[in-house]
Amino acid sequence: MSNITFETVDSLSGIKPEDWNPLADENPISSYEFLATLEETQNVGNNTGWDPIHIIARDNGTLVGAMPLYLKSHSYGEYIFDWAWADAYQRSGLSYYPKLLCAIPFTPTTGPRLLSRTTEIKKHLVRGAIGIAKDNKLSSFHCLLPSNEDRSVLDQESCLGRKSIQFHWRNHNYDSFDHYLSTMRSQKRKKIRQERQRIKSAGISFRLISGQELSNQDLDFFYSCYEHTYLIRGSTPYLNIEFFYELRRKMGRSLLFVLALQDQTRIAGALNIVNGRTIWGRYWGARHHIPGLHFETCYYQAIEFAIKEQYRTFEGGAQGEHKLSRGLEAVETYSAHWLAHRQFAEAIENFLDRETNALDEYQNDLNHRAPFKTL
Predict the structure, then answer these.
(1) pLDDT single digits (tens) 73-103
(2) What SS3 state is found at 35?
(3) 272 & 345 share domain
(4) Is there a single domain that holds both residue 159 and residue 180?
């Protein structure tokens, strides 16, 4: 480690994609292109409460490690909820914000977070982040949804582990959507077929468009749907339209757009990220509420595509127990947390022990309620 230097940078602009991406295991969501696009389109930084403070490791000038790291002044866009922790700090007269966060902004997907080929450098990245938190008297350091390899390092570096549940679809060598349905109990299989038939009977059809073929008109339509879906809930989108235009330019090969049409009129769309093995269902919006449209556009179309193209996994995003009955499985995910205040760290550790026990029971219950036939 004698030749390795560590520094923090407030943007990725000085780093080359070809240096960053191999360390990120060529994962499109942890990629240089995805993270840099968030910065360049000012969805992070620029007083958003996501201030980049990435840790970079170099060996004689060669990039050998990195951690996507942010100084956070709120907990929006994280999907691992710590609002109660922040409230407890405030009621005790302490400041929970700013905190330090290693995560992919607005993106609840598991993947590389400690970017390096060696465990030793990964350990130093974690120690560096905790050191930044200590030196700046920050309340805490958090790492959200790391890979299993990164999780083992975080567990060794005085971080508290937190379990959560997501719902993922797994391809058990299905040769068609009907084959997939045939593995379910008859009642569940019948319900899905009825849902899909109602959409078809409403005159709704679908086009799947690769990112490289997405037109400006496609993107503008998608964003109008995406924005509308937030607005009807009294909220505003996390991401601006410039992000999607730039993502198409940088990562077109990693995008898959599902366009829904009713009598040839565009009504909804879902934008997925893909890498040949996994489909990540990420962004969705609709002009009108039609029962069943969300599931057909965001899930059934993606699953059918995954079967046809032999993808192994479809990740349906955070939360959503209703996904279980459609064949997505309950999967354990993980986050790691370090807290500076000793008494709060002990209290949160006790809470996490109780929460984990409850989630273990919940996951067992979900597994028993899965729609698949039992052998």
Answers:
(1) 999 999 999 999 999 999 999 999 999 999 9
(2) helix
(3) no
(4) no
